[in-house]
Amino acid sequence: MVLSTYAKSRNVKQGTGHRAGFTALTSVLQYCYEMGVKYVTVYAFSIDNFKRQPDEVHSLMDLMKEKIDELLMKESIVNKYGVKINFWGNLSLLSEPVRLAAEKAMASTARNTGPVFSVCVAYTSTNEIVHAIEESFVEKRDRIQERYCNSYADESIWADSMDGAISVTDLEQHFYTADCPDPDIVMRTSGETRLSNFLLWQTTYSHLQNPVPLWPEFSFRHLVWAVLEYQRVYPYLEHRRSLSKKKH
């Protein structure tokens, strides 16, 4: 992980890199909001990260709870800009204190009309897709049961009704990201070129960037360069998006 790499490169104790990463995140969020960026999404914790050593996972959960609480403080960036917070992922996998803190943050900011800050935690894109399929199926099943008065007597009707019932639109309506636009820019710091199971469905036409600095070293000039790079390729990306829409 980038933050672990940062701690090793600086010869500091475990956890220091994660704290430095949260500090960098606060700065980058402020830069984004001052530049007029409406939506910012971060990949904070993958479902795969639960496979790490238990003490490391426990430490990360404690740090996450601490930082979520800080976001709700009166002087925080959330209150300064009226930020709405989302937590996307299988939140049931989180420790109870972290899950409750996340739910409180979402409830407390639900009516905010400023920028939207989304945190992918206990998340993988494949898990999100499976979740959307399951939710779409349940929705379709319930509609059919209601239509036929909960009767399974005519199995042929059931089969005909369910054949091809789940569409792309159905899936996208049940993604965690349903209320937000697809990202324009995806940045993977430290020069990594893997998406690591992050928003695979939503990033088809996103501009993927791989800045060399480790995340805690990511600064305002790196962000400005990322935006300039996106502006350079924007006409091409829009052309590809328009072609895709015509096909559908």
Helix-strand category = mainly alpha
Largest sheet: 3 strands, parallel
**Mind telling me the C-alpha Rg?**
21 Å
Question: Average pLDDT across residues?
Answer: 87
The rough form would be described as globular
Offer a quick outline of the entry.
Belongs to the UPP synthase family. GO terms for molecular function: ditrans,polycis-polyprenyl diphosphate synthase [(2E,6E)-farnesyl diphosphate specific] activity. By secondary structure, the chain is mainly α.
Can you offer a commentary on this structure?
- By secondary structure, the protein is mostly helical.
- It is 52% helix and 11% strand.
- The chain is built from nine helices and five strands; from the N terminus they run H-H-E-H-H-E-H-E-H-H-H-E-E-H.
- The strands form two sheets. The protein has a three-stranded parallel β-sheet.
- Helix 5 links the parallel strand 2 and strand 3.
- Helix 1 packs across helix 2 and helix 3 runs parallel beside helix 5.
- The two termini are 38 Å apart.
- One of its GO terms (biological process) is polyprenol biosynthetic process.
- Its EC number is 2.5.1.-.
- Belongs to the UPP synthase family.
- It comes from Phoenix dactylifera.
- It is an enzyme of class 2 (transferase).
